[in-house]
Amino acid sequence: MLAYSQVHNLSQKSELAFKKFTMSAPVIVSASSQATAEALLRDARARRATFPDERFHGFTASVTFREDAQTLSGRVTLKSVRDIACELPGARAESVQWLQSLLAMNIAHRLERTGGMPVPTDHPVRFAEGEENALGVKLVFEGDPLESSYRLQDGVITEVCRRMHGARFVITTLEVVTTEDGRHLPKHYVVTYFDPETGRLASVAQYTELYEKVGEMYLPSHIRVVEISHEKPTVRALDLRDLALLSD
Question: Domain spans of the chain?
């Protein structure tokens, strides 16, 4: 059975070898398999390419930012998810804030202290029996106030469902790249937002991300976001060049 997710091999900066996920048969699990559910989640988190907290101190880069028809160039210095300086002459304040938030989110999801997943980490996890689909088995976090659930397939977290910041959203990973040491980075994923009260579709954002290896770490080199809402579509992209890691 061919799964929806796909894998690329990230062995060089500009060459990606194509490979597809395959599953020989549907995975049948029992809701009573508590240890197995926790082991699968632990394995999937360990396979994510994360930043070692003691060695990652941020980076600098030249940036080209495109928002619809406008293209701007400047510099970015990221020291932490809360300390991102962006020099982008001619940009609106809202655009700079959006760029800073995008980079903060990208880095926050890859910090090693939480296995690359900011939440949740301290709630029991169990299989949702009978809810498997082509994205894999479903795991539910019991007692989580964010109502989190994941789907896992072939060691990849393919779906995250959660209530957060006044919204309910679903992150669906469609494609990942695999680093030289066998870890995963998201390449194509979709975030679907729903009204938490009515359950109606509110908006959809499609992300495309590429990476460059700098030292032993993979830094974002390209991020494109296509947002669809009840208003007109918005397309934004940033290219990061001359990437350099900051020292302590």
Answer: 2-55+124-245
